[in-house]
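Before relying on records like the one below, remember that each one covers exactly one chain. Contacts with other chains, cofactors or solvent are not represented anywhere in the record.
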Amino acid sequence: MELNEARNKAINKFNKLNRKEIICPAIWLKVKFSNEWFSHITYKDKKHRRKESEQIIRFQCFLDVEEIIKKSYLMQEYMEREEKIKVRDHWETKYITKNVEYIWLIWIIEHHNVKSRTKVILMKEEDKDYAEYLSVIPAWNTKWDRNFIWPID
């Protein structure tokens, strides 16, 4: 698949998701999609663009995000920390410190008899009643230093 084809499919999917209300059973919150997802897929950081092959894989993973969010009943990883969040106040941009939760959902998806692990990252700010979709990552391993949340019997 070419980059433009993968990008267009992901953008079409985003336009559909942006109008839907998706609830994630793992956190029992609505998940909203902002335009920041695109920069997470195309750039490593503000100055460094990802390789085309990496972008194609991430765009393809994005097509499964809705299914992963709707079917995840378990948080795989969780992190909470204080961060400076950019806030627009009329014409002025300010930074305020907020408590932010990061939630990782990991799912194994099978395409054409090939199984792959996909990690979806959600973010919830302390004063909001919804989580925001941040990024999707083809995941083969997890960070050992995160706090794992296991199901309770």
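Residues 39 and 66 are 19 Å apart (CA to CA).
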